[in-house]
Amino acid sequence: MTDTQRWDMISCARDTGLQTPNIDKLAANGIRFNKAYTTQAVCQPARAGIFTGMYPNACGSWTNVVGLGDDIHTIGERLQDKGVHTAFIGKWHLDGGDYFGLGKSPKGWDAHYWFDMRNYLHEMSDEDRMLSRDPKNMETHDFSEDFTFAHKCTDRAIDFLENHGEEDFFLTLSYDEPHLPCICPREYYEKYEDYTFPKSENLKDDLTNKPDFQKYWAGERLYLDKDKLQLEDKYFFGCNEFVDYEIGRVLDKIEELVPDAIVMYTSDHGTMMYSHSLTLKGPSGYDEINRIPFIIKGKDVPQNIVDNAPVSHIDIAPTIFDLFNLKIPSVFAGNSLLPQIEGNVKQVNEQVFFEFGRFERDHDCFGGLQIMRAAFDGRYKLVINLLSTDELYDTLTDPGEMNNLILDEETKAIRNKLHQAILNNMDEHRDLFRGYYWDRRPWNENAAEPQWYDGLTRQREDEEYEERQYAFFSGLPMETAIREIHVRSFFS
């Protein structure tokens, strides 16, 4: 996986002039899911969805710099306990540390191969650390491949394949690239000296009838002359091609040593690049940050297929367990994609869901708390912004998501169906922020009266790692995870 690589930054998905030949080859030999979505467009929550199989809000990682609890078990730990050799190389971002991580292998992964960004920095002199954090230093220093985080991660992945390729294994290679600081050899960024990324019409979105916080997020960018604006960043786009090269090194080794291996490729989230006058990522449901590249290739996987059914990062964990012929843990919130891959069903998801809570615990430069829940059915996208205006888009007739249909009478039934799907999903997966206020939106004339107490308790089931939780009033193991309870008054 990569970091901050939009769905349309791979050339097989959209012809933008960017070059990603190795990822394109992977897609030609497998299935490219054209409508794949992250669970939250922030580094740690996105990874939480992938590596715990739970939505960020449900596993506690709904913002950066909040570590997973001891009662949350990653797919590495679960697979290792089933006899699979698991290794993680690269950016982890789930330990509660800062951007670089804590430099220590968590439970469930081979410590010999562990190499996060703090480990990378520890190998450097103070001077090289500082050089590695500013892309402008590439103008005065010729950084070799060996200097980069990506190359060092690739070397370790190749070593793992050479030494453990004959075992049952699950190897994750998590690049930081092309995320800032975009360090790469000169030959890659110089190719993009005069390159501009093609502009979309939604750069001119004036944010009329959009959530108010999007206007604050845009700031002065809302008033820029978008005709004169050029989407130029030779370092970012050069690093995008460089990480493709590094991925190619691994794919070549897989082809040589374990040609039947299942290979999955994705990125954690995208970046706005001035669409809707917004930059980076944050509390929005727009495709620029939530839609991600996702490819699966391997033995018995159909080749050169573009699948337009909606899929999600939340489906990765159950798919992996299904591929290993293991029982899918009940705490996993997604669906295995195997029936869809094998052609037994057209799609396993009627909708996919994604969210936003807060960018980071330590940062107040990304808007603070903006709670969002969204659903996408392959065409229509409903975004509920708890503290602001809600949004509905028809991505078929309005792919730039310019026209907010939240009050449109013609799409009212579709809006209401997606709304109910969000409410049901929040209940089913014990969303930390669920409550009556999600139902009582200004446009929902059929909202139920506020209900303080619904008489239900929803307990997590993780049969392999937890004994049955005890019912409060009996002290006996619960019989069903979702059940009615009656609160007794302690005061007359």
TrEMBL record:
Keywords (alphabetical) are: Calcium, Hydrolase, Metal-binding
* Residues of the Sulfatase N-terminal domain: 1-325
Metal-binding as a keyword of this entry, yes or no, is yes
Q: What's the protein called, per UniProt?
A: Sulfatase-like hydrolase/transferase
Q: What is the lineage of its organism?
A: Bacteria, Bacillati, Bacillota, Clostridia, Lachnospirales
Q: Does the keyword Nucleotide-binding apply?
A: no
Provide the GO MF annotations for this entry: arylsulfatase activity; metal ion binding
The UniProt similarity line reads: Belongs to the sulfatase family.
* Pfam families associated with the record: Sulfatase
What SUPFAM superfamilies does this protein map onto?
Alkaline phosphatase-like
Q: Which InterPro entries match?
A: Alkaline_phosphatase_core_sf, Sulfatase, Sulfatase_CS, Sulfatase_N
